[in-house]
Amino acid sequence: MENDRLKDLAVKTVETALSLGADEAEVSLLRDTEFAVTVRNGDTENLVESGSRRIGIDLFVDGRKAVVTSTDISEESIRLLITEGIELAGVMDRDEYAGLPDKDELGAEEGDLGSFDEGTSAVTAAEKIDMAMKLEQATTALDARIISDGASCSTVTLTSVLANSLGFCESFDRTSSSISVSCAAEDRPASGENKGKKQSSWWYSTSISFTNLDPVEKVASRAVERTLRKLGAVKPKTCAVPVVFDDVTARQLLSYFASAAGGSSIYRKSSFLVDMLGKEIGSPLVTVIDDPLIKGRPGSRPFDGEGVRSRTKTIVNAGTLENYLLSSYQARKLGLKTTGNAGGPSNLYMKAGEHSPDEIIADIESGLYLTSIAGPGANWNTGDFSQGAQGIWIRGGKLAEPVSEFTVTGTFPQMLSGIVMVGSDLEWRGSINCPTLRIDSMTISGT
Amino acid sequence: MLSFTDYFEIPDEKMIKVMETALSRGAEYCDIYFEHAVENQLTMEEGIVKEGIKWISHGAGIRAIKGEGTGYAYTEDLSLEKMNRAALTAAAIADSGASPPPVAVSEVPFINRYPVEDPVTGIPLEKKIAWIEEAEEAARKHDPRIIKATVSMADSLSTVQIATSEGRLLRDTRPMIRISVSVVAESDGNRQIGVSSGGGRLGMSYFVSGMTPAEHGQEAARQAVLLLDAVDAPAGPMELILAPAESGVLLHESVGHPLEADFIRKKTSTYTGRIGDRVASELVTVIDDGTVMNDRGAINFDDEGTLPTPTVLIEKGILKGFMHDRISAKHFGVELTGNGRRESYKSPPLPRMTVTYLAAGESDPDDIFRSTKKGIYCKSFRGGQVDISNGDFVFVPIEAYLVEDGRVTAPVKNLTLIGNGPDVLTRVTMTGSDFSFSDGRWTCGKGQSAPVGVGLPTIKISEITVGGSELQ
User: Fold this and answer.
1) For chain B, what is the domain count?
2) In chain B, which residue's Cα lies nearest the Cα of A227?
3) Complex ipTM, two decimals?
4) B258 CA: distance to closest CA in chain A (Å)
């Protein structure tokens, strides 16, 4: 019912935009309600509960584009906003590629994507607080060395409505629930001035439905394991060795890849994947798929950010780059077709390989198992990759001592073609997912 | 100029009513944060002014505090009914007991750290377009190898009003300007990116007192072209020289974040319980100061209504204090430092940096270079990140060079520098006399984004791990 009201408002706003002088217009309305609680040491520390809304209007006047957005959705304010937007568009230059998507691309994929869970809005604040409390208790109960940095539980309900002057008008509802816990433990450095050193980590679970979240015990044990295994970390020697990205760091690598394959990086010539369509960019073990139509996944959607019907596509097929992630503007700039990726990737994942993580490290005499990468040194614009890192050294095929305060350096092209093993452990924990990866060699800079 | 009542027609009685509701279940304190923000952005790329964007945000956030617990709710509808509903939600952080009644509000005077006669928000579009065209042209014409230039200019004006249950009422208008140029240079299939950006809590006078649009264009182009000839950076520990101003990024990450008092209160920072300890070389004095005029990180008062003061964090190597918000200051029984900041009305405040800098030393910068046998010299940065608990931090240069036998030689690329805050700061062996603040380009992310400033003189660190690809 509420959605119908929002859809009416969106259509009406499109009409207003046209009547005030726009040639084409697109209107998006977002409405969300959020609840988030953080508990620490058994007390509620932060409780946020609210709802908000926002309207965004893309206006095209004679090939000139302006975007106006506001939190005020009263009719009078919207009218004023459009007037200002049209004035703004008037001083832009003409862009022959600007405009709405082609009409035949528009549409909403039918069928239930399982993105909305009725039950989530019925979960009470008390239940969510209790969930966070239980998660914290489960975490600190596992080991006396663990200090809690807080456990959280949050839920979000989001409605998005999109309408444009080509007659498209659809709405999409989604829910999301998540729990997470952060913890730390005292560390005893062998040398140096850092007398207050600690190690910390965290873990989480996220799901469309509150009832499908991982059990708190599972989340707690992963957070504690990830913290305690860092204790006593040493700085490794500077060298070049095989590097195994665990599923957390591999996921980060794939999200950098998604930025490199995004249409805006490509047409701006700010990506190492420029001019690589149809070419080999990685090892034959690498297959990457963007699939908005998988039921019950966090990135599923019936249409993209500009109303283009969702479709499944292969981005990398056995090492060959088959598609970029394109909006219709980016596609026109490149002489290609939209891939339904206005707003970015949907559910992007690397296809699982055949080896368990244990098998992947089994024949590494000396190497690095990478558990954390940090910093802005992953430069997909140029292809350079240099990141601060933490991990566990591999000796004789087994995980040995923890290592920290070092960097891993290489380049994206070398790394992608250097993938010699892909794990069988593809787990869905967000919209970008990647199994464990082994790269033949990277430079480690430490002592 | 803007008038507050244009945006918030909220009589004092109404604010008191809402605060009474927020205190109705036993909270000790509450505040209301009203915000009306207008932000404009113009982008030019491929030789055309391609897109104009305008964002308007308007709302109020209501916070209730009981002990160290915060209840928070916000609303974009400022009717008494909706604000009361939000206040009731926030009130739920407490579940019983009596609250002190809210005190009648009266306006708190403050010094304006960014008096601006000419906020960019009010400048005609044609004028702004002329600026970005000037920057774009300068970048493109700098060198035939420049193949792309993108210029964006953002300006905002945010009107803020804070009322607290202790009777404080503060109203502020916060201007901001930021210009950013990004260029791609290409030669024989090698593509490199150069960037230049700046601004502050200024009006159009930024382009007089700071860099002009054309200078930003040339600077971005110069960097991109320079990097075409850069060699792969070495790997391993070596000496490090940091140029003034932008290198403050190192400070922001290495000691700034771990000295934010929420991490101290939660005992997760590596500096927990170390007040009075030597944590850096005696050449190191670090200050956080929101009163730096017109700086991007300057504040007239923080987002819980506290006036800023220079806060000495480290004095001659000794840890002196932390950056506090209301909750952490109360926890430790210390004075407020004016570091409670928030991204918008949608978020409760957190301890955050404002303008964080390392005070000038006495060394002649030339001597710093002369004393360096083999090292890296960094001038500008993409940014950094820190692990609060163990103190490991990274920062990533854009423009960096090898230093060999006292001389700056080849530019290097593809490197991350990594160090451990408490260890690295003991290795500051020289601090220059050439202090300066960064141009207004930095935004800090800690769950919420916040504009910040940094500053530093030329300094030398005797050893840091340089993460390049070339094994020595």
Assistant:
1) 2
2) B389
3) 0.93
4) 11
